[in-house]
Amino acid sequence: MKQVRMGIIGTGLRSGIAKHWHQPEGESIITGVADINPENLEKFKEKVTSDCFTTDSYVELLKRDDIDAVAILSPDYLHEEHAVAALKAGKHVYCEKPLAITEAGCDRIMKTAEETGKHLMVGFNMRYMRMFQTMKGIVDSGVIGDIKAVWVRHFVGYGGYFYYHDWHGLSKNTTSLLLQKGSHDIDIIHWIAGAYTKRVSAFGSLSFYGGDKPNDLTCPTCDIRDTCTEASPGTLIECAFREEIDVEDNNVVIMELENGIKASYLQCHFTPDYHRNYTFIGTKGRMENSEPDGKVYVKTRKSNSWEEFSDQTYDIKPAEGGHGGADPVICKEFIDLVLHGKEPIPTPLDGRMSVAVGCAATESIRNNGKVIEVNRPT
Ligand SMILES: NC(=O)c1ccc[n+]([C@@H]2O[C@H](COP(=O)([O-])OP(=O)(O)OC[C@H]3O[C@@H](n4cnc5c(N)ncnc54)[C@H](O)[C@@H]3O)[C@@H](O)[C@H]2O)c1
Hints:
- This protein is of the alpha/beta class.
- It is built from twelve helices and 15 strands.
- Helix content is 30%, strand content 25%.
- The strands form two sheets. A nine-stranded mixed beta sheet has the order 14-13-12-11-7-10-9-8-15, covered by helices on one side.
């Protein structure tokens, strides 16, 4: 095979990455697209390509012989159904994160990939961001010693817009935002710390969004749209204070990793700013990032002393392309996997373990902070 013929399932916001796969003169081309929403299909045709098969049925898409691989960009609760069907239809699969919304769902996808022998890749694009690749390299170099503690603060500014104005706000669609948003961060903790989580406890609540507004209320039709702080600035228009919303917007998760590292992940969806602040503390020093400043700071100290050896600041170079330049790279990684068998950085098990932790933390939150064990697949 010289060129991968790609099908896309789901042409919503995330389908912007499809342009990286549509390279008619290159190693991949989009030959088919499925979405149940005709408007999104039309926009996709305008933005990416109109020269391909389009359908409202992913089943029809999967029947086609001119599709070798499928990117699953549908809502989280459909990933399992779509990934399993695509693998069974003999297609290689790129699946957006979270791999599924339950641990068992991830296991079913992974089992199907094994049985069919088709490639499966998870859309962990944060692993391809320069910021986090730099941090991984620093830890692997040993300069801050053996990692013992990880503290992550996730300020999800604009969280009300992206997560409370559409399907994301309901637990039945996501389990919780600890999978939807947090699966990236839990994965980065696992990756850089070099171990998966073995147990979790968490507290969380719906502290700001949700409420008593009718479920069918939308921003354009709302009487208080001119004064509401959460009035939608874009195309997602369901009321952020509607009654049916049931996913926590304020979460504190503590984790113990298989290698004894203690980690914490704090996620809040009503902050004014939008960034992720990671601290890794090792036996010889500490590393912290600042996304707003584009920097990674490293401080080292003499063992058993207050005396500091040296501080070093890394300037992260800006990169072209969505998500800090990670999107074009992750798309190419999928093509390299299918065409050349080159293994990508994240494995399906990484995808599964971050979902398992997100599910365990959600279970803990909804059971008074009960400690939940996280198991690897049997
Ligand atoms: N890795 C990242 O940085 C990143 C960023 C954004 C979104 N995502 C992931 O991408 C996925 C999609 O997110 P989004 O923001 O594009 O959502 P979205 O709601 O904007 O788009 C989802 C699309 O899927 C379509 N769809 C729904 N049911 C379908 C079906 N049965 N068959 C075919 N299409 C169907 C919808 O009509 C919609 O067009 C999510 O899982 C999300 O977690 C990942």
